[in-house]
Amino acid sequence: MKKFFCSFLFLLLALLTGCASQEQTSELRETLDLSLQSSRFVCSVAIHSGDFLLAEEVAVFDRSGEDPAFSLQRTILNDDLTAAELYSSESFYATLSDASYEDAASLFFDETAATVSRNGDTISLTTDDPDAFLCYDAGASDLTASLALEYGRPVSCLISYSLPSGNSVSISFLFFY
């Protein structure tokens, strides 16, 4: 379980740091980058085995106050399934710089690795190469991604995919302006 936990943390960090080497100037990237104007956002990453939750991290980034802040709630399945509690939880809080907030608020995926379709204020992204889209070699498959816009700005983004282990990952962002 410890190896799984370390892999999960690495995945979250890789996703939040994004594709730093990819310079995107597309119209969609310009729309995605409007998320940097948000005053608060929530990012949730969950790993499931079927309907069973293995681990979840919910990060809240807030720059509506004096200093940008970050809080994290982590829930992980206990190694000892006979323990009194099925899951263990921990929390973390820190202040951030504006640059760190914007790095985290940037939607991390490479939209050029996907086919984009738009229906009103909903954008759907499909790809034949999920790892290129995620900018992370996860062995992902069956990736679905959608983005909801209000007033031309991203308000939610949902990405889900399967791992070679058979587990599924869901990542969601909610942006507040």
Account of the protein in words:
- The protein is of the alpha+beta class and 177 residues long.
- The protein has 4 helices and 9 strands, in the order H-H-E-E-E-E-H-E-E-H-E-E-E.
- It has a 9-stranded antiparallel β-sheet with strand order 4-3-2-1-9-8-7-6-5, with helices on one face.
- The protein is flat, with a radius of gyration of 16 Å.
List the helices and strands and how they pair.
Elements: H1 2-17, H2 27-32, E1 40-49, E2 52-62, E3 69-77, E4 87-95, H3 98-105, E5 115-119, E6 122-126, H4 130-134, E7 141-150, E8 153-162, E9 168-176
Antiparallel strand pairs: 1-2, 1-9, 2-3, 3-4, 5-6, 6-7, 7-8, 8-9
End-to-end gap? 38 Å
Relative strand content: 35-45%
Number of strands: 9
Give me the Rg, rounded. 16 Å
Quaternary status of these chains? single chain
Order of helices and strands: HHEEEEHEEHEEE
Strand arrangement, major sheet: 4-3-2-1-9-8-7-6-5
What's the helical proportion of residues? 10-25%
Shape: flat
Regions with little confidence, pLDDT below 50 for 5+ residues: 1-25
